[in-house]
Amino acid sequence: MKHFLYLLFFIFSSINLFANGHIRFMGVEIAGDYSSFKDSLESKGFVYTTSFETMYKFYGRFVNEIVKLEVLATPRTNKVCKVIVYFPEKETWSDMKKDYFDKKRLYSEKYPIDRDYEFFSFPYEDGDGYEMRAVALDKCKFISFFLAIGGHITLEINKSSQVKVVYEDRVNIKTAQKELNQNALDDI
Questions:
Q1: 127 three-state secondary structure
Q2: Do residues 169 and 81 make contact, with C-beta atoms less than 8 angstroms apart?
Q3: Contacts 24+ apart (CB under 8 A), 85-89
Q4: 65-109 pLDDT per residue, tens
Q5: SS3 sequence, 153-181?
Q6: What is the pLDDT, as a whole number, of residue 22?
Q7: pTM score, whole prediction
C-alpha cells in the first residue's frame, strides 16, 4: 500500500510539473515579452532578419545546423507564445526521412513522446518513388508530438521538404487566442 501511495504521489507531481511553468527553447523560457526573448536569442548567436506584425524572423545555429526561426508573440501584450524552427530543405526522400527520424530520436531522448503519425495519403506510399511529390502536395503525414514542461513540441515534415519543429507555450498561446478574439470583437 505504501508503494502505491508513492506511485500516486509521483504521478500527480509529474502531471503538475508538466502543467505549470513555461516551455523552454534553447534554455530560454518562452514567457516574457518579445524584446527580452530577442536579446536572449541574439546572445546565442541568432540574427534578426525581418518581422511582420507579431511574427519575428531570425536565422542561426540550432542542433548543429543553420536554421530559420519564426518567433510569434501575442498581439496586444507582445508575449512570446510560439517558436517555429525550419531546418534546411532536403532534395531526396531518403535524406528527408533520415533527417526526420534522426531528430525524432534526438527529441525522444529528452522529451516523452505523446503521439506520432507516419503515413502517406492515397495514392502515395513509402517506397513508391513519388514520396517527394507527396511531400510537396502535403500528402505526407510524418508528425510527432512531445510533452514538455509548460507546453508541447511538434516535429514534422512540412510541404517545403523541411523538418519543422514547433515549441508552443501552453499559457501564452491561450493569452494569444484571447487577445486575437478581442481584436476581432473590436473590429466588428
A1: coil
A2: yes
A3: 85/164, 85/165, 85/166, 85/167, 86/158, 86/160, 86/162, 86/164, 87/63, 87/162, 87/163, 87/164, 87/165, 88/162, 89/160, 89/161, 89/162
A4: 999 999 999 988 989 999 999 999 999 999 999 999 999 999 999
A5: EEEEEECCCEEEEEEEEHHHHHHHHHHHH
A6: 87
A7: 0.85
Written as one letter, the residue type at 41 is L
Cell of 125: 506510399
| Cβ atoms of 150 and 124 closer than 8 Å | no
29 strand-pairing partners = 24
> What are the cell numbers at 52?
511582420
Q: Do the Cβ atoms of 48 and 97 come closer than 8 Å?
A: no
Instruction: Please state, in angstroms and rounded to a whole number, the distance separating the CA atoms of residues 144 and 117.
Output: 6
* Nearest partner of 153 among 167, 169, 173, judged by Cα: 167
- Rounded to whole angstroms, how far apart are CA atoms 105 and 82? 22
